[in-house]
User: What shape does this take?
Amino acid sequence: MTRVLTYLQAIGEALAQQMGLDPTVVVFGEDNIGGTGCDGTLGHAWGPTQGLHERFPDRVFDTPITEAAFVGAAVGAAATGLRPVADLLFVDFAGVAFDQVLNQAAKLRYMAAGRAGAPLVLRAMWGAGLRRGAQHSQALYPVFAHIPGLKVVLPSSPADAKGLMAAAIQDPDPVVFFEHKMLYFSRGEVPEEPYVTPLGQAAVVRPGTDCTIVALGRMVQVAQEAAAELAGTGVECEIVDPRTISPLDTETIYASVRRTGHLVVVDEANPRCGAASDIAGLVAQHAFDALRGPVRTVTAPHAPTPFSPVLEDAYAPSAGQVVAAVRATVPYAEQERAS
Amino acid sequence: MTRVLTYLQAIGEALAQQMGLDPTVVVFGEDNIGGTGCDGTLGHAWGPTQGLHERFPDRVFDTPITEAAFVGAAVGAAATGLRPVADLLFVDFAGVAFDQVLNQAAKLRYMAAGRAGAPLVLRAMWGAGLRRGAQHSQALYPVFAHIPGLKVVLPSSPADAKGLMAAAIQDPDPVVFFEHKMLYFSRGEVPEEPYVTPLGQAAVVRPGTDCTIVALGRMVQVAQEAAAELAGTGVECEIVDPRTISPLDTETIYASVRRTGHLVVVDEANPRCGAASDIAGLVAQHAFDALRGPVRTVTAPHAPTPFSPVLEDAYAPSAGQVVAAVRATVPYAEQERAS
Amino acid sequence: MPQRDSTHPEIRIYRTMRTIRVFEERLHAEFAAGGVPGAVHLYAGQEAIAAGVCAALADDDYVASTHRGHGHAIAKGCDVTAMMLEIHGKAGGVCGGKGGSMHIADFDRGMLGANGVAAGGVPLSAGAALSAKVRGTDQVSVAFVGDGGANQGAFAESLVLARVWNLPVVFVVEDNGYAQATGTRFHLDGRDVAPRGEAVGVPSVVVDGYDVIAVRDAAAEAVARARSGGGPSLLDCKAHRFFGHMEGWDQQGYRGAGEVDRLRSEHDCLAIHTRRLLADGTAGSAELAAVDAEVAELVDAAVTAARSAPDPDPAELLTDVYAAV
Amino acid sequence: MPQRDSTHPEIRIYRTMRTIRVFEERLHAEFAAGGVPGAVHLYAGQEAIAAGVCAALADDDYVASTHRGHGHAIAKGCDVTAMMLEIHGKAGGVCGGKGGSMHIADFDRGMLGANGVAAGGVPLSAGAALSAKVRGTDQVSVAFVGDGGANQGAFAESLVLARVWNLPVVFVVEDNGYAQATGTRFHLDGRDVAPRGEAVGVPSVVVDGYDVIAVRDAAAEAVARARSGGGPSLLDCKAHRFFGHMEGWDQQGYRGAGEVDRLRSEHDCLAIHTRRLLADGTAGSAELAAVDAEVAELVDAAVTAARSAPDPDPAELLTDVYAAV
Ligand SMILES: Cc1ncc(C[n+]2csc(CCOP(=O)(O)OP(=O)(O)O)c2C)c(N)n1
Ligand SMILES: Cc1ncc(C[n+]2csc(CCOP(=O)(O)OP(=O)(O)O)c2C)c(N)n1
Ligand SMILES: [Mg+2]
Ligand SMILES: [Mg+2]
Assistant: This one.
């Protein structure tokens, strides 16, 4: 009895189920109900909150374009008994609410020595591919992962999206939940009943012996394509999807590198102080002895996202780049032995 | 004819000299003149802008507490002929102006395909040690270094502070200039005439053969202490101060690691997606063959900055931690051979 | 451009409005046909605001725009073909194809850029005004912002900064009734934005945004105030949009039955201006028809150019992050 | 606390004000003597605002505070010794020594925290109001903000959000004449903040912040409005501070000659309240002297405790980043 949902539907289902299970869960953001016309009729939400308002009319709210206020309100509400799920729309808009994330949500528990917390979820669309230009296409999770006190979730499949959203809502700490806009209509099997995918547990989404590929978000798909191509030439890659970049399941990564001896990290974010170099640096520190060749990172360039389709298509890492990176790190000898 | 200035004075001298050289340089921020009393008398600025208003009354401004507006105004002014130096006070306050840095200043040139730019300097006090608590003690430069389009400067000495500020003001792109609050009253020789310390050029502040220590900002001092202690036991460390974290002078770092075979990165920022792991990751990728042992990073913990002096003193890396990291990476055999 | 200068100013305004209208209606059709990438927010219906405000500006004055920026760009004199190429992401676009509809900018024309962030451009405009003031020119800067964007902190802060620094800036609120699907009845609590300006000492007026002459006159007064050292002003202009929030995004289910039809039949700023020009004899219908023909040709040529223009060189991906050294 | 309840409310207010005053004067002396770490922003002079507002609140109502937060915390019922320990960074501090003066919080008392970011706490307060509303309690939330912080976008946005969501929140502007060294004459253009509330539909009044009864009455009206579903209000309270912006930081050179002396002699809210209590017979001087003695002892004991309290366990550095698992 398998059931297939889109990533978008899976997130929506998690929201609905968690609201059903916990009356303190509230959901808000711009057009999360779907707007109100001049004559007072309610509109229809476009994204994962579609239909929620009909089921939970007292717990889904539209907001004016006041991200600093409503993200801050999520913090205040979370510290006083609610579990808010606030919607930033594009993660790029975190800029206008950043103080409330950086200085309020992330630090509240620490500054209060644990006597309060901010169990909120901040939803944010991210990633390149939709021709939205530099201010609507960023990854930015490295910025959030840098901040102690936050958890940062990057689902790559519908099933994970549902389970991780459930976990994020139930988590006692603030979670930034990244939804890749190019995955919204990707499809996959999703169990119907509520379930939780724990934060901080990586998934080995493809086993392999020759090279570890750590891939994040949409890059998991790209890594799969690359791995399939490499398998054709006898190189078996193991793909690890961390699923949450903070906390990071380093043990699964180190264990994989210990098996394969090689590491390629594929990350759609910008390279400097990014997730790829973070993982590369951690491995160089804690699993150095396992490495039989240089670590390779494949990332977006150190550049904003261009609008033009032809340029944007060259922006995020491609399977071809991943293949090349694996080939560059796995010595030819090994490749041949492996084949 | 040597002359000694504090770091604070050196920055002030750079501001004054560059304003003298270039009539388009303007300086503003909260109390940059020094305030205006109820009866209209002007106050005295506390920091590096002290005295500037007397010399350049038409180009130094106080601002209301409107960081989003005045940082954005710096972008608009920079794109239309001025070279603004805007003062965030504490870098922590970047949160309330972050959109203007992330989405406006950093991306303007790219989105306009190079037909305009935003040559501004954003001054920001950073770092732990002054008992200011979690919202006034952050490092945060990894967040800025992550963003393409920005340059990020971290002077560690008065002489560099002056030269780098001159370079930042003259640079055609937006520069975030980090002033460590615990270095303000540190003293050093500073040439009197205007000069420029180029962005993107690391300094080897101590030559050595056994281990490379890359240290940033105030950590350069800490690394010096550690190196002195290690020298006593026969381990000669080479200290590299990148001076700018974006652009990063990777060549000087790689060259040093190629000489020493070992790398310890000392960074006051938080560890995840931070500067230390960035440098560690880059070396593991591009100078892997030179590494004769695991990279080590010494950073603040993944925690906000605590207020209590006893806790805060344990927050930023100490010389003892650096010594331990060097000892852990440089094998005892080598240490003995070296001694 | 002496020929242009000899035209009656209100006919120049007509040309501007007509250009925007045709540009936008055409983009709507092209988008529906699948020929346009990206996020396209059409300005049709609000032409009187851009045209009226920019009619009160000099060439070297500044405007900072919104995500709904085509009208401002055209009214500020940006090249229509270069804009069309930009919207198509082509080489030769006014931003080399790197910006797209939401980031059209042309600093040579004082167009500081459309902006993907609500109210994101408002502080930039204040900065351009500061620049003019420090450089000692008499340039004025305009900040366009939507009713939704007017709720952003950056807008409120910019009003304060402009007042305190006495900047030559004009804030132009374009209250088109909606922020995405959310009506001002909800997000402005049914109120005007003008009192927010007044509250911080910025002279503010509500303006009929369907009446281009009313807009121009209000703008002229604000611009004169700014140029003469009187500091900032705010115009709260009311004019609803013809199309949905964004092409391909909404079915406008949130709009009342017949709302758009009524808008087009009763509140078409272009029709209103046309009727006035004809009624008071400023223009004859032949003259306007000639303008219409020229505009049609201009936009048609722009679309043709955009279709056949080459893509940007892939190497452009990595340029312009920083100034070339 | 039945004994406390039987005290006349205006004497309870006196006790609160007196406690704040003595706490702050003592901290000033302790800081000068070198015994206090960190950034300490004293509230003395403004006591009537915290005491008046909190007198209108119930125990389970919320307040979000500013960097100048001691007065709010004391008025909301936080333990004075735990606060003093916190300010000294000691174990047993109300935030375990991890917060310090700028982050004193006590959620059990509805004190959502002092805040190091100007206006940073205002949205939190709106969120607590939302929480009360959704949970169906009649709790009310107060957001304190300075005149300087009132220029922050987060404040403007919170006013809008509170209006649109009709939240039970009271915005209390503490206009003490300065933001650091910059006078309201400059940064508010000499204006009140109240019109900014009115502009977005939030009922707003200017209140004499030296008169604790005026503050309490205005607060009571606003709180009643909030509790009964009438939504947000704004009080724009005027009262200057006695000390500099921050201990150890400024010499107050920006303040006019004699300004502080005049303030202390003519506008001391505590003296004003004392005179009234005595004049209308609500209290006798012996009764107030008894309160004074108790307060003196309380604060003295707090300082003594703070001096001798142990430092936090160094292991605390790494706890409370996330909830313990
Ligand atoms: C800070 C921010 N929040 C949200 C958005 C998403 N968004 C894009 S346009 C829009 C509505 C803007 O409404 P308004 O300012 O009235 O302009 P209009 O679209 O009506 O011209 C929203 C919410 C954004 N671009 N920026
Ligand atoms: C966003 C932000 N900008 C700047 C500061 C630095 N700062 C701390 S207090 C202060 C003045 C605040 O003035 P006001 O709000 O009037 O409060 P007061 O100190 O007078 O009580 C400033 C500018 C800050 N804390 N937060
Ligand atoms: Mg609108
Ligand atoms: Mg003040």
User: Anything to note?
Assistant: Chain B touches chain C at residues 24, 26, 58-59, 61, 63-64, 66-82, 84, 96, 99-100, 103-104, 108-117, 148-149, 151, 172-173 (CB under 8 Å). The CA atoms of residues 212 and 257 of chain B lie 6 Å apart.
